[in-house]
């Protein structure tokens, strides 16, 4: 029976009758019927352009309402969790500690941000009062200040109204123009840096299109070369510098000792700067173990840790036996090279006497550990895939990454060796070698496993060193660059691109434009930033940055917000290094988690399945090595079982929290003038600063 409600007017203008309805089945139990009834229109199939019946509309509305309620509930749960974390860490101080700045370290920047925040709150209160009382007028044109309609004297409503009008006039006459000039200057810098980024991406695309990469002539190492003609292999020194690396010392020493190279043509130097006696004994025992297996390995320890890593490497290169070696490979403590590393890097030096450095690419075992590691992976993939590769192919110069590289020892000696004057000794030696005429090669297809910091505290300290050191080095190297004999365009590349644009201008405009001018423009609307500066260009640049890591595309928005969040740390570090402030020569070892690759985990499981303490000694082990092993064994037996590791408390970062409140205050102000895209950007960026300020990004703590 046809439905009682007639919706035929919804479905079409013309109703046809006598339409046959045919029902067929594999085992038919129904006959062919012809329904000749105007009411049968309800049974006809509905075309795409036609509407839906009441039940369908009701179900669609209910489904959409269910989805909306679910979305609201998810947002409410997230907001509640965030507020709970804020309450726990700010009001009760549970499991957290407030960041304490050392004298001269970031205090000036924090005071500036705190004063800016207080001023913005006062201005917001004034704007709210003006909004409620209806005193708002159209935004004045900066070029035509007379376009601001000011009321007559008879229209002024009391002293507060008069004060607000005076503020509007003062803002238009004295504040808006300087802000607009600074804004335009930062926009120009932003466009120049974006152009540089696009040129690098085009260079990378050209390399991929033409399949350009360093090649090796012939096959210099055959399968039986080690046994037949081992003397033809060059002498290689492998250095593994470390300092209190309890989590990763074993895997790094193991990887260095298992590199495929004739044993009489390689020496492994374990350069230990640890000040923890227990860790020193563990490292010595590991060195003894590999020495017993026939590996040519030595252990060096400095009593005075001067010059940090540069001093450690300099001390190791001063040994008498180093003169017998031609190349040196350097691996930091968390790096585990593949056994064929030397066979893929050393052959590039053959027949190329001007080549001083072969740099391999980093690969990260913990890139999917949390959101922080994923965002770091995006940045570092772009650095290696685009920056290092393009500069290596077209300029034969790039910054040495400090590890996973092979140096010609003659190039190090001709460039003055390792210097202790900065915390970026790797960039220092690379610049001096470039000024001396040495060339570099980057191998994008040779990867060395390592870790990225999993906690924001470790990442923040690492970024501080990486951005203060280059500015410190720039002050020291500028006279040498200008006086060098390299070509003018190479000098311009070093000064304008390598140092100024990528190390100084980038953190300057990022912090100034998005953390100072943007929120300030909400209170001074005459100097408003255009939408394309806030949204379109940053999104395009983030898209280009994420291209080398295509699996990270779902994180493009968090990446954009996090890069702006890190600008305060990078800007502070840049200023500290440029003006030689208190923490410009501060080196803090990046915390490691001891992550391993899948194969390393299998080896570790097999090793730990064996009983501890049954160390197999071989002939040739020295008496001192045996005493060290026995001493460590006795200490392990006498010592009580170690307590379970306690979770480190979270930090509260004052500068990030101040910026979070500042941006959220500016977001509230943007609502009064109905600035949609500005409001959303300020809101999400403020929440991003809040999450980072409360240490809610990175490894899960308490």
Automatic annotation (TrEMBL):
One of its GO terms (molecular function) is glycosyltransferase activity. Pfam families: Glyco_trans_2_3. The chain crosses the membrane at residues 65-83, 112-132, 174-192, 494-523, 529-547, 678-697. The keyword Cell wall biogenesis/degradation applies. It is a multi-pass membrane protein. InterPro entries: Glyco_trans_2-like, Nucleotide-diphossugar_trans. The keyword Magnesium does not apply. It comes from the Eukaryota. Residues 328-537 form the Glycosyltransferase 2-like domain. It is found in: Golgi apparatus membrane. GO terms for cellular component: Golgi membrane. Belongs to the glycosyltransferase 2 family. Plant cellulose synthase-like C subfamily. Probable beta-1,4-glucan synthase rather involved in the synthesis of the xyloglucan backbone than cellulose. Seems to work simultaneously with xyloglucan 6-xylosyltransferase. Xyloglucan is a noncellulosic polysaccharides of plant cell wall and consists of a glucan backbone substituted by xylose, galactose and fucose. This is Glycosyltransferase 2-like domain-containing protein. It comes from Ensete ventricosum (Abyssinian banana). The lineage of its organism: Eukaryota, Viridiplantae, Streptophyta, Embryophyta, Tracheophyta.
């Amino acid at each position: 029976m046809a439905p009682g409600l007639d919706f035929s007017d919804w479905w079409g203008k013309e109703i046809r009758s006598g339409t046959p309805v045919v029902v067929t089945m594999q085992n038919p139990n129904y006959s062919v019927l012809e329904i000749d009834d105007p009411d049968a229109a309800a049974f006809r199939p509905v075309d795409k352009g036609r509407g839906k019946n009441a039940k369908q509309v009701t179900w669609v509305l209910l489904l959409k309402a269910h989805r909306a309620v679910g979305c609201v509930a998810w947002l409410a749960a997230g907001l509640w969790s965030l507020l709970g974390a804020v309450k726990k860490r700010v009001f009760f101080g549970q499991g957290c500690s407030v960041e304490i700045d050392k004298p001269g370290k970031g205090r000036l920047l924090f005071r500036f941000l705190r004063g800016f925040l207080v001023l913005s709150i006062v201005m917001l209160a004034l704007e709210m009062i003006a909004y409620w009382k209806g005193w708002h007028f159209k935004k004045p044109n900066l070029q035509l200040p007379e376009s601001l309609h000011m009321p007559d004297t008879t229209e002024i409503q009391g002293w507060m109204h008069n004060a607000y009008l005076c503020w509007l006039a003062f803002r238009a006459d004295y504040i808006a123009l300087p802000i607009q000039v600074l804004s335009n200057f930062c926009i120009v810098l932003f466009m120049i840096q974006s152009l540089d980024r696009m040129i690098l991406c085009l260079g990378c695309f050209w390399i991929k299109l033409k399949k350009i990469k360093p090649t090796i002539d012939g096959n210099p190492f055959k399968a039986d070369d080690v046994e037949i003609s081992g003397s033809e292999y060059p002498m290689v020194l492998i250095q593994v510098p470390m300092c209190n690396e309890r989590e990763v010392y074993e895997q790094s020493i193991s990887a260095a000792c298992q590199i495929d190279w004739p044993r009489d043509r390689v020496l492994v130097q374990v350069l230990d700067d640890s000040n923890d006696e227990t860790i020193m004994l563990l490292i010595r025992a590991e060195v003894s173990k590999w020495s017993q297996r026939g590996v040519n390995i030595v252990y060096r320890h400095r009593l005075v840790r001067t010059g940090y890593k540069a001093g450690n490497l300099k001390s190791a290169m001063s040994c008498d036996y180093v003169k017998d070696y031609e190349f040196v490979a350097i691996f930091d403590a968390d790096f585990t090279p593949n056994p064929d590393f030397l066979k893929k890097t050393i052959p590039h030096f053959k027949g190329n006497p001007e080549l001083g450095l072969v740099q391999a690419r980093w690969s990260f075992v913990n890139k999917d550990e949390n959101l922080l590691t994923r965002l770091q992976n995006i940045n570092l993939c772009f650095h290696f895939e685009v920056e290092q590769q393009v500069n290596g192919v077209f300029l034969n110069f790039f910054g040495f990454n400090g590890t996973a590289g092979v140096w010609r020892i003659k190039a190090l000696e001709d460039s003055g060796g390792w210097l202790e004057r900065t915390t970026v000794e790797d960039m220092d030696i690379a610049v001096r070698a470039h000024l001396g005429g040495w060339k570099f090669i980057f191998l994008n297809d040779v990867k060395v496993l390592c870790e990225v910091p999993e906690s924001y505290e470790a990442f923040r300290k690492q970024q501080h060193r990486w951005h203060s050191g280059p500015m410190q080095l720039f002050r020291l190297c500028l006279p040498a660059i200008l006086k060098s004999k390299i070509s003018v365009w190479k000098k311009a590349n070093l000064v304008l691109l390598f140092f100024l644009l990528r190390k100084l201008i980038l953190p300057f405009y990022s912090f100034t434009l998005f953390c100072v001018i943007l929120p300030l423009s909400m209170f001074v609307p005459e100097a408003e930033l255009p939408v394309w500066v806030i949204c379109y260009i940053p999104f395009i640049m983030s898209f280009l940055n994420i291209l080398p890591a295509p699996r990270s595309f779902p994180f493009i928005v968090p990446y954009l917000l996090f890069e702006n969040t890190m600008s305060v740390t990078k800007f502070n570090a840049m200023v500290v290094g440029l003006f030689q402030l208190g923490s410009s020569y501060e080196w803090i070892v990046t915390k490691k988690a001891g992550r391993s690759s899948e194969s390393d985990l299998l080896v570790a499981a097999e090793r730990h399945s064996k009983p501890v303490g049954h160390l197999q000694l071989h002939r040739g082990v020295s008496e001192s090595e045996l005493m060290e092993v026995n001493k460590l064994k006795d200490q392990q037996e006498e010592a009580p079982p170690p307590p379970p590791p306690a979770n480190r408390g979270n930090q509260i970062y004052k500068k990030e929290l101040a910026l979070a409140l500042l941006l959220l205050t500016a977001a509230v102000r943007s609502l009064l003038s109905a600035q949609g895209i500005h409001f959303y950007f300020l809101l999400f960026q403020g929440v991003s600063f809040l999450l980072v300020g409360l240490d809610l990004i990175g490894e899960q703590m308490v």
